[in-house]
From TrEMBL:
Keywords: Membrane, Transmembrane, Transmembrane helix
Bilayer-spanning residue ranges: 29-50, 62-82, 89-109, 124-149
Organism ancestry: Bacteria, Bacillati, Bacillota, Clostridia, Peptostreptococcales
Organism: Alkaliphilus oremlandii (strain OhILAs) (Clostridium oremlandii (strain OhILAs))
Domain of life where this protein originates: Bacteria
Tagged with keyword rRNA processing: no
Pfam families the UniProt entry points to: SpoVAC_SpoVAEB
Name recorded for this polypeptide: Sporulation stage V protein AC
Record bears the keyword Cell inner membrane: no
Annotated InterPro entries: Spore_V_AC (IPR014203), SpoVA (IPR005562)
Amino acid sequence: MSKDQSNKNKAYQNYVDTKIPKPNILKNCIWAFFSGGAICTIGQVIHNVIESIYDYSHTDVSNITTLIMVFIGALLTGIGVYDVIGKRAGAGSLIPITGFANSIVAPAMEFKKEGFIMGVAAKMFVLAGPVLVYGIGSSAIIGVLYYIFNH
């Protein structure tokens, strides 16, 4: 690449850098904090209601709450509402369990035109797959280390 072309590339990159909108990090963090907190509060309310109505163990109520929150996340993704929430809430909508449901349902919906096997089933875990692999793998390693050092 010639020196003239290199200077043009640098000038263009400087121009692009001046035009790209800069994110308001503090505002984004506040939105993520409160939206993630709101999702978790909804989950806690569901948990408390189930626990007060039914005579289930705390573990069973926690499992039921998780199931309901995953269903809500999947349903809101399916009807297009979770994307709107995600655009405004940012990372606050990704961290709770509803974000996990969104990461499974969204690719499945995107590739449904390719059929149930090569589209929905094959693409369902495109986003969530690495999270599951590394989450399960690291928990297995930590479990082995815990066993070794505590026995």
